[in-house]
Specification:
737 residues, alpha+beta, Jelly Rolls, Laminin, 8-stranded antiparallel β-sheet, 11 helices, globular, Fibrinogen_a/b/g_C_dom
Length: 737
């Protein structure tokens, strides 16, 4: 059977991005897997479960019924949703009631007209934005209701449409399974109800951990009830070569998991037929201070043990004999009965689907500390593009501040669209600091001792960015200095890329020209330039890197760098003639993930950081992902989504505001008819034109025109490269239809 992760948090820490995933909140327990949407764009993961109630479901309109009951069917059972809400740190569900002469709660004294049913079939008389036991709506708490005599807008009973909405966030009461609407039996009474999906954030179980400081440390819990089936899973991290993870004893029966040696994990038990031991041997040491996952199962038919992704070890149970595991002592996690206990960290310990609260127990136990440190050793590799892994008490996060990227793993491009005539200047030293401070502060990596000399010159630069444009010539990027030295990346009038260095010692600047490739073709292109002394390495898109060398007479110091320009150069003093020409009208297009040594000028402009004071912008900078992966994930198609319920079940955006279907059925039918008519006309036209041409005996082809090698090579790269994702393909598809 497929092994699903226990939660969205677990998928995130496998480096996965936002999408629909199957999760199994109680391991191999009785609940079974369910499909949820995991939104990984924030520090804490959101898990979303959808239902089938349409947005703005209308009730009433002269219906004779006294009560109207709206039933919500979820893509999961109530028990499965409870497993998610109970392990979450916070949950919420949006609820909205739009009314025309239909009262909602009316007075706090009387019985409400409308209520909702939550977990365990309990009725609740509070509304979104309020809390348990407070029979009010959000406006009653904020004291801004339409009629101050009432605690809900709808209770004023107006003939115009009014609305009460907000978040239900008492997670013990969620999810909403029914809404019962009562005040509909008068002429002119109408109401519309919307309920959002259940959204939960955080996972208290995944990071629930304890550190065992001495080999005699242990935590004890009540006896493990695993008579006919036992399912135990946990993560461990250690630098010790052996130690007992956990043990529970009976008269003669027992169950035990231990690290036998640096490469062996053992699962042993006795149900009355004599002891059985299963050992998994790892080819690599397990005491490497990285997280390892252990999964042990035992039932009447067989027992199994798995460590990480190593092959599963299975042992069949004897056909005759005892099958019940009878235990009576407490469950010991760590040292038990004088044995050498486990040294290190255990986390997310689940016994038959229940996570043991190691953290709480560790707080009151000597020799054991709650929580764990050192998550970065296992997960630091997920912080991409130079992001730094930062230890947290329950997990880790990626610090992207020294990178040109954003997002939880520093992989989200930060880019902007430049209109004609716009430019951005990044001053390497902020106003009011002496030029000498600049070196150690902004431009140079303080980790590199060679370049913290006080003479303010660079022996090496590292520049990377991505751009797209259809207009040439233009200046993409320019680094100026207090001397005649400069560096520039340009697109010349033919649309070819040129890197220009002027470091002194040569009559003319040194140029690297990338001919026979049109870079002004509207597609995203990436440029990486690294200079170390005389050696320059250029990598363009996904072509192999090429090496160049500055002329022997050239100086190799970039003296006194002053500012970096994007889009246009506005600098005092003498400026290179070509650059002066290319400067008008200026760059139009997109620039993203711009990084020069330790500086990310675009990010400093778009995200308030301590570097923002260095930035000056002319025009309005509009953030754009520049054809990088789209940030929204389209909902699954009905064909691939087993929970598709022919409804607007996924129409709730994440901010909880209800959005309608967008297109109602009638307009969809009319649109369909129009489309068919247009299609028929087009087919007839095509047929006629071909018929005419055939009779003339000529058949023109335009294929040869657009097929120069340059364009097709770029196009081929883009189709194969996952980073240049759907955006471009989508636009192509639209034209092909």
């Amino acid at each position: 059977s497929a092994i699903y992760e226990l939660s969205c948090e677990a998928y995130k820490h496998l480096g996965k991005t936002s999408n629909y995933y199957w999760i199994d909140p109680d391991g191999s327990g009785t609940l079974g897997p369910l499909k949820v949407y995991c939104n990984m764009t924030e520090d804490k993961v959101w898990t979303t479960v959808y239902h089938d109630l349409q947005i703005q479901t209308s009730v009433g309109g002269n219906s004779p019924e006294k009560l109207s009951v709206l039933q919500l069917n979820y893509s999961a059972t109530m028990d499965q949703i409870s497993a998610i809400t109970s392990s979450a740190e916070y949950c919420e569900q949006f609820i909205s009631y739009s009314c025309k002469m239909s009262r909602l709660l009316n007075t706090p004294e009387g019985n409400p007209y409308t209520w909702w049913v939550g977990k365990a079939n309990e009725k609740h008389y509070y509304w979104g934005g309020s809390g348990p036991g407070i029979q009010k709506c959000a406006c009653g708490i904020e004291r801004n209701c339409t009629d101050p005599k009432y605690y809900c807008n709808c209770d004023a009973d107006y003939k115009q449409w009014r609305k009460d909405s907000g978040m239900l966030s008492y997670k013990e009461h969620l999810p909403v399974s029914q809404v019962v609407v009562g005040d509909l039996d008068r002429p002119g009474s109408e109401a519309k109800v919307s309920v959002g999906p259940v959204r939960c954030q955080g996972d208290r179980n995944y990071w629930n951990a304890a550190s065992f400081v001495t080999s005699s440390s242990y935590l004890h819990f009540s006896t493990f009830q695993g008579e006919t089936s036992a399912d135990i899973s946990f993560y461990f991290k250690t630098s010790a070569s052996d130690g007992v993870f956990l043990e529970n004893l009976g008269n003669t029966d027992f169950i035990k998991l231990e690290l036998k040696s640096a490469t062996e994990v053992s699962f042993s038990f006795d149900v009355g037929n004599g002891p059985v031991e299963i050992v998994v041997r790892s080819p690599n040491p397990l005491n490497d201070d990285q997280w390892h996952r252990v999964n042990a199962e035992r039932n009447v038919k067989q027992a199994s043990l798995q460590v990480d992704q190593l092959p599963l070890e299975v042992r069949k149970a004897p056909t005759e004999g005892h099958t019940r595991l009878e235990l009576y002592s407490q469950l010991y996690v760590g040292a038990a009965g004088g044995q050498r206990g486990f040294l290190g960290c255990i986390r997310s310990l689940r016994m038959n689907g229940v996570t043991l609260d190691l953290e709480e127990r560790a707080k009151v136990t000597p020799g054991v500390k709650p929580g764990c440190s050192g998550h970065c050793t296992s997960y630091g590799m997920y912080c991409a593009n130079g992001g730094k892994c930062v230890e947290k008490y329950n997990g880790y996060s990626c610090d992207c501040s020294r990178t040109a990227y954003d997002g939880p793993f520093c992989i989200k491009d930060v880019g902007a669209f430049f209109e004609e005539g716009m430019w951005l200047r990044y001053n390497f030293h902020s106003p009011g600091t002496s030029v000498k401070d600049l070196v150690s502060r902004t431009l140079l990596s303080s980790a590199d001792p060679e370049i913290t000399a006080p003479d303010l010159s660079l022996n090496k630069e590292e520049l990377s960015f991505s751009f797209s444009t259809t207009k040439s010539p233009c200046v993409l990027l320019y680094v100026s200095s207090y001397t005649p030295d400069f560096m520039a990346v340009l697109v010349n009038p033919n649309g070819n890329l040129q890197i220009r260095y002027n470091l002194g010692g040569t009559k003319e600047p040194y140029n690297i020209d990338i001919d026979h490739r049109n870079m002004a073709n509207g597609q995203p292109h990436t440029v990486n330039v690294t200079r170390n002394g005389r050696d320059i390495i250029l990598q363009l898109d996904h072509y192999p890197p090429t090496s160049y060398s500055l002329p022997a007479t050239s100086d190799i110091q970039f003296n006194s760098p002053k500012a970096l320009f994007l889009g246009k150069v506005i600098e005092i003093g003498k400026i290179d003639q070509d650059i002066y020409k290319y400067n008008t009208p200026g760059f139009t297009g997109c620039l993203s993930r711009v990084q020069f040594n330790q500086i990310a000028p675009l990010k400093a402009a778009l995200r308030p950081t301590n570097a923002s004071s260095h930035v000056h912008i002319q025009g309005e900078l509009v953030e754009s992902n520049c054809g990088a992966s789209p940030l929204t994930i389209p909902p699954m198609s009905a064909a691939t989504d087993p929970w598709h319920l022919d409804s607007a079940s996924a129409d709730f955006p994440y901010n909880g505001q209800a959005i309608g279907d967008g297109v109602n059925r009638n307009s969809a039918i009319i649109g369909g008819v129009i489309a068919v008519v247009i299609f028929t006309i087009l087919c007839t036209l095509v047929f006629l034109i071909r018929y005419m041409f055939r009779h003339k005996g000529t058949y023109h082809t335009n294929e040869a025109k657009g097929a120069e090698s340059a364009e097709s090579a770029d196009a081929a790269i883009m189709n194969n490269d996952p980073n240049f994702t759907e955006t471009i393909d989508e636009s192509k598809k639209e034209w092909l239809i």
